[in-house]
Specification:
The structure holds two protein chains of two kinds.
Chain A (H helix, E strand, L loop, with lengths): L1 E5 H11 L4 E4 L6 H12 L6 E4 L3 H13 L4 E5 L1 H6 L1 H9 L5 E6 L13 H4 L7 E4 L3 H18 L3 E6 L7 E5 L3 H7 L26 H30 L6 E4 L6 E5 L1 H16 L4 E6 L1 E3 L3 H8 L4 E6 L9 H10 L7 E6 L9 H13 L8 E2 L5
Parallel strand pairs in A: 2-3, 2-4, 4-5, 5-7, 6-7, 10-11, 10-13, 13-14, 14-15
Antiparallel strand pairs in A: 1-8, 6-12, 9-11
Helix pairs in contact in A: 1-2, 1-7, 3-5, 7-9, 10-13
Chain B lengths: L35 E5 L9 H5 L5 E4 L2 E4 L9 H5 L5 E5 L3
Antiparallel strand pairs in B: 1-4, 2-3
Classes of the chains: A alpha/beta, B alpha+beta.
């Protein structure tokens, strides 16, 4: 069955199909419809889940942590300031190894108050230990919910599903709805052997000294490493079940490309058109889209970019004093490789400024015109 | 009841994924970092149980209508000393 869904409702429908048991959320534009629809489904009985109303995003995540620790499948969604307010408990979800899945609609950080898209909110949570996936269309948003629970519950790490404000959250697209019985086969009920249980009591997260804290952190990194294989395996299995295969990255016409454009989310789908146009003009251009950003897919990025002469990384985010975050990560992945490509870091589209095919063409042409980047941050489209 | 045995880990791989005790609190003793040891003078104690009520770590229990301090869990915070209305609880430096 096909439905016309806005990105936010694709998240909700993904949660419904995943049979989430506890939802705790606080409304924030542009996330509101995600939990609005879920609350309606809880109220009318189509979703058998407990909807917990809370007074803040910090409490929303805390409630998800409690639910997940008790063995329930927990879901929430937020944006920008709400995600920032969750920061402390995001670390808790990871340290407690709870496979919570959360939608984050990328919204630029205030001040000034704004609601349009920008990746700085999700990337500021990069080091918490949440896995992160960046979606390019509403189909992927829905699929990512089911897939994220499948992966998270195996490696015991939470996943943040990231989508662009308005370009996906409020844009309606045709979405193929997986059948519930097939989803049930793909995603069995969550069974956590380490859950809180009154018949088998344990102390959770109690004081741990320098003698064991280090090892617990080592184990989280091991789980992240393992997660790369699990994403690949489950992404392929998802393809067998539902006809849409997922991988850590999506390399498009990269094999013989001289210049490769790297981006995430909706910008990558716009770039695909530009790549095709420039190919017709005889320019060997490719596109690398990161779907999974944490764990960072080092091997896949290296193999996709390994033969390119130049790489252009586009960031709709900025780490002040350092530059675009994807640029830094891609550079560090490629550092010291044989035939290391020249890498250009472009910051553009902050706060939801449109990035059109002609902007992307300009970015790629910049690489053709320059042997090396003139500076660490190449600003494009800013009025200076 | 879980087996009253302390589980010993040797390496990261032995740990459960979550930071959790494998046993009950009955085997997970937490009173070893106490600096001050509260002691009840039973000649003065009137059995009012205010100390039992105030202990924030539930480390005082009642036996024959008198409070008894469980040093396996008492952290030596001194609240019982402060709250005792007949000054029946005093402290000594731990390790003396």
């Amino acid at each position: 069955m096909r439905k016309v869904l806005m990105g936010n409702h694709a998240l909700s429908e993904g949660a419904v199909l995943s049979r989430v048991q506890v939802i705790a959320a606080y409304p924030i534009t542009p996330q509101t419809q995600v939990v609005e629809l879920l609350s309606e489904k809880c109220a009318d009985g189509t979703l058998n889940a407990k909807f917990v109303k809370v007074e803040s995003e910090h409490s929303a995540m805390a409630a998800c942590i409690g639910a997940s620790a008790a063995g329930a499948r927990a879901f929430t969604a937020t944006s920008a300031q709400g995600l920032a307010l969750m920061h402390e408990v995001l670390h808790w979800a990871v340290g407690a190894r709870l496979p919570i899945v959360m939608g984050n609609i990328n919204r630029a950080m205030a001040p000034p108050w704004t609601i349009w898209t920008d990746q700085t909110d999700s990337l500021a949570q990069r080091d918490t230990g949440w896995m992160q996936v960046y979606c390019q269309n509403n189909q992927e948003v829905l699929d990512a919910v089911i897939l994220s629970y499948k992966v998270s519950e195996q490696v015991l790490l939470p996943t943040m599903i990231v989508l662009d404000a308005f370009f996906l959250s409020h844009t309606y697209e045709v979405v193929e709805m997986p059948l519930q019985d097939k989803v049930d086969k793909y995603l069995p009920p969550y069974n956590n052997p380490y859950r809180m249980d009154v018949d088998d009591p344990h102390t959770f997260g109690g004081l741990t000294g320098p003698d064991w804290y280090f090892e617990l952190r080592y184990n989280i990194e091991q789980a992240m490493e393992e997660a790369k294989d699990v994403w690949k395996k489950e992404g392929a299995l998802y393809g067998e079940y539902f006809g849409r295969k997922y991988d850590l990255v999506d390399a498009y016409r990269c094999e013989d490309a001289e210049v490769i454009f790297v981006a995430v989310a909706t910008v990558a789908s716009t770039a695909r058109v530009v790549v095709d146009e420039m190919r017709k003009e005889g320019k060997k251009v490719g596109l690398l889209r990161l779907f999974v950003f944490r764990p960072f897919p080092y091997e896949d990025v290296r193999s996709a970019l390994g033969n390119a002469k130049k790489v252009v990384v586009m960031d709709r985010n900025i780490s002040f004093g350092a530059g675009g975050i994807f640029y830094q990560e891609v550079k560090s992945a490629m550092y010291g490789m044989k035939n290391e490509p020249v890498i250009f870091g472009i910051v553009s589209g902050l706060g939801g400024r449109d990035i059109t095919p002609s902007h992307i063409r300009e970015m790629i042409e910049y690489a053709y015109k320059h042997d090396e980047p003139e500076k660490d941050i190449i600003w494009m489209g800013v009025k200076v | 009841m879980a087996e009253e045995k302390r589980i010993v880990f040797e390496k990261a791989g032995d740990l459960p994924p979550m930071a959790m005790s494998l046993g009950l609190m009955s085997v997970n003793k937490t009173g070893n970092w106490r600096n001050e040891r509260p002691i009840i003078d039973y000649d003065k104690c009137v059995g009012c149980m205010i100390c039992w009520k105030f202990c924030p770590d539930v480390s005082i229990y009642i036996e024959d209508d008198k409070p008894v301090i469980n040093y396996d869990y008492c952290k030596g915070c001194g609240i019982c000393v402060e709250e005792c209305p007949v000054d029946a609880i005093y402290t000594e430096k731990e390790g003396k």
